[in-house]
Amino acid sequence: MSLVEELGAQLRATSEELPTGLVSVAMERLRSASDLLNWVRQTSVDPLGVPQLGNAIEHAEHSAAALRLAQDAIASYLAVLGLSGGAPPKDDYRAGLKQDDPAPPRTEEQAPPPERLGPWWQERVAALTGEAPPPPAEAGAAGGRSGGTAELLRRVAAGVRSGDRARLGRDLHRVDAATGLGLSAASSPVLHRLAGDLLGHEPRPEDMQRLRTAAGGRVRSLLPGTPPAVLDTLLARICRAPAAAEAPAHPADSAVTASVLTGVLLARLGRDPATLDPDAPEPSRTRGADA
Predict the structure, then answer these.
(1) Spatial CA neighbour of 258 closest among 287, 283, 241, 237
(2) Distance separating alpha carbons of residues 72 and 69, to the nearest angstrom
(3) pLDDT tens digits, residue range 34-87?
(4) Distance CA 245, CA 27 (A)
(5) Read out DSSP for 99-145?
(6) What is the largest CA-CA distance in the chain?
(7) Model confidence at 101, in pLDDT bands (50, 70, 90)?
(8) Is the entire prediction scored with pTM above 0.85?
């Protein structure tokens, strides 16, 4: 191996080790927490830490942008040397999927107690999907089979692939709010990777309309109660574009819509939901069908 080739290998390894995916997951978790607190504070005069979370989100966004700039600079330098920039970092695609619930799956006898704030998650899922919650006895029996957020994301993607809105509603109803809200963080790096695969290049602000055309109709058919601004905000984040300022949305909206959008993009790429398993073989990054 020549000196230039050795340098290129070291630079590629450095780029792949940058924690871009982990920072993206942290940023989405902060956003979810901020959305939840914004929703709660509507009935309280106490700011409840929202300003502090806003500062943390801004720092995370700056960190993510700096990491992406570093990766772009490394890729440009490798190109100048006549070396390939290599595949995008795997960690960026899998980071969200590995941030699963630390607790082991519960048995039916260990089903969690009802949430003290009431079934607000199930009520919002019903509003988004148009599917009523299952009977209490059935919901309680299924409560221990959530398997964590990553498993929920795979089940939602499978429901999207089959086009079964009733199945989608059942899967979302049968988890607690903590597992459901985790969909935002789990899907964030996955969505960016899938959108890049579909477009054939890293998503850019000018790609928003193409992604909206490719996925918007399917998302609306599965989530008829979702405000249009929620999908637009998600697409803006994927494409690194400024999002329009909107009134605080319900905290479940972004999580549910992001999971359904993940399933739609998987279907457009012809991939099975099993590819969302962090231990599955890395899917090849090829140019997707024209959106």
Answers:
(1) 237
(2) 5
(3) 666 665 655 555 555 556 666 766 776 677 677 777 777 877 777 777 776 554
(4) 18
(5) ---SSPPPPGGGPPPPPTT-SHHHHHHHHHH--PPPPHHHHHHHGGG
(6) 67
(7) very low
(8) no
Residue bearing the bigger pLDDT, 101 or 13: 13
State how far the alpha carbon of 263 is from the alpha carbons of 24, 120, 155, 156, 268, in Å.
19, 24, 9, 7, 9
How far is residue 51 from each of residues 44, 47, 113, 162, 234, measured CA to CA in Å?
15, 7, 32, 42, 22
Go through 42-65 and write b for each residue having 16 or more CB atoms within 10 A of its CB, e for each that does not. Answer: eeeeeeeebeebeebbeebbebbe
Cα 77 to chain center, whole Å? 31
* CA distance linking residue 60 with residue 25, whole number of Å: 10
- Work out the angle at residue 253's Cα, subtended by the Cα atoms of residues 91 and 150, and round it to the nearest 5 degrees: 35
Q: What pLDDT, in 10s, does the model give residues 212-227?
A: 999 999 999 999 999 9
Distance CA 227, CA 257 (A): 10
**Residue from 66, 93, 22 nearest 284 by CA:** 93
